[in-house]
Amino acid sequence: MKWMVASDIHGAAECCRKMLEAMEREQADKLLLLGDLLYHGPRNDLPEDYAPKEVITMLNGAKERLLCVRGNCDTEVDQMVLEFPIMAEYAVVQLGERMIFASHGHHINPSNPPYLKQGEILLNGHTHVPAYEKQEGGWLYLNPGSVSIPKNDSEKSYLILCERECRLNNLSGNQIWMKQFGE
User: Fold this and answer.
1) Cβ neighbourhood burial of 162 (10 Å; 0-12, 13-18, 19+)
2) Mean pLDDT of 132-155
3) Centroid of chain to Cα 49
4) Residue from 168, 82, 81 nearest 130 by CA
5) In whole angstroms, what is the distance from residue 27 CA to residue 79 CA?
6) Strand 66-68 to strand 90-95: parallel, antiparallel, or no bridges (unpaired)?
7) Given a cut of 80, is residue 55 above it in pLDDT?
8) Domains of the chain
9) Which of 153, 182, 181, 154 has the alpha carbon at shortest distance from 169?
10) Among 22-26, 35-39, 44-48, 152-156, whose mean pLDDT is lowest?
11) Residue 179 neighbours by CB under 8 Å, 6+ apart
12) In what order do the strands lie in the sheet with 3-6?
């Protein structure tokens, strides 16, 4: 199984379009969205290509390949227009033998993690900053950054997760880094 992981679209239509094109180019089986799909939030500037109605149409068109968790900017009103569930606070998925706990990151994060065993993964968005960090106890913290509003001089990015490795790519598909699990 090949997972693409993205977060923090914040209603940016062109970024959403590029993200979905990347999903096709990468031949990902599923796209795991870590929240903040339509609204830009009070702390972010309006994205350059802010068009949440276009984002709704694009995401609904890919609904059979999406798994999503709720971000701090996602609301019940958003769920009314989206044809796939977005209100779950977290999701637990398997990647081969590896368990992945996915949440937006505003509540469950490296400072307040769930119980994770060695080799398991905590996936968060929220910070808009990509991360690959080994944690005390041997579990791994991953963040795909943001596809629309990157922070800390990062690029618009997403993760590709395979059984033995993960890659961070920019929206054009250029690899930023690749890590073998267990490194």
Assistant:
1) middle
2) 97
3) 19
4) 168
5) 27
6) unpaired
7) yes
8) 3-180 (3.60.21.10)
9) 154
10) 44-48
11) 132, 165, 166, 167
12) 66-68, 30-33, 3-6, 157-161, 165-170, 175-180
The residue assigned the tokens 């905590």 is 122
73/43: higher pLDDT = 73
Predicted local distance difference test score (pLDDT) of residue 183? 62
Q: Which two tokens stand for residue 104?
A: 């937006």
Measured distance CA(170)–CA(173) in Å, rounded: 5
Pairing label, strands 66-68, 30-33: parallel
Query: Does residue 173 surpass a pLDDT of 80?
Result: yes
pTM score > 0.85 for this model? yes
C-alpha gyration radius of the chain: 15
CA distances from 100 to 29, 92, 115, 118, 173 (A): 16, 6, 11, 12, 24
> So what's the pLDDT on residue 154?
98
pLDDT of 5 strictly over 90: yes
Angle at alpha carbon of residue 115, lines to 143 and 140, rounded to 5°: 30
